[in-house]
Amino acid sequence: MAAAPAFAQEVNVSVFEGLWRASPTQQCVYEANSLESALRIADSRIDGVDTTCRMTNPFDVRDMDAVLFDLVCESVEGEFTERAMFVQAADGGLIVVWSGYAYKYERCDADAAEGTVVTSDQVGIPDQVEPSNAPVSTDSTPDAEPSDTDSTKLAD
């Protein structure tokens, strides 16, 4: 019995390279041990929080703008291997399907408009809202129906 012919598949993986963030308020900076870090993909390597993986054996997923990789990873818990599919999202983002989960990222553009808000604190949204900032009713009657004359004030 003859062996099946081997062939090398050309796969363009450069479309996945760059910095990727999980939300619009996440900073576009890679910091190895920070939960606030963006995901970095470069030189067939993906760097996340406490984990770095070599992206090996790329396989083009036909008609899906996707590539399946074998990942050889090192983390704080040791070495492991995984498979992951990287998909070009319709909006220009990145979808990573890994271990039964799908993660969506948006590209951190190098030429983003100056002054673009990248974090919630830049627009005055605190990480946590203090209870004293909640509206307090001046009506002391329990279960009273609100009327047009009721007023509320913010506690100091």
Properties at a glance:
156 residues, mainly beta, Lipocalin, eight-stranded antiparallel beta barrel, two-stranded antiparallel ribbon, 10 strands, 40% strand, globular, disordered C terminus, DUF3617 family protein
> Which percent range fits the helix content?
under 10%
CATH class descriptor name of the domain at 14-110:
Mainly Beta
Number of DSSP helical runs:
0
State Rg. Answer: 24 Å
- CATH-defined superfamily of the domain at 14-110: Calycin beta-barrel core domain
The percent range for strand residues is 35-45%
Main beta-sheet annotation: 8 strands, antiparallel, barrel
Side-by-side strand order of the widest sheet: 1-2-3-4-5-6-7-8
Please state the overall shape, judged from the principal axes of the Cα atoms. globular
Q: What is the CATH architecture annotation of the domain at 14-110?
A: Beta Barrel
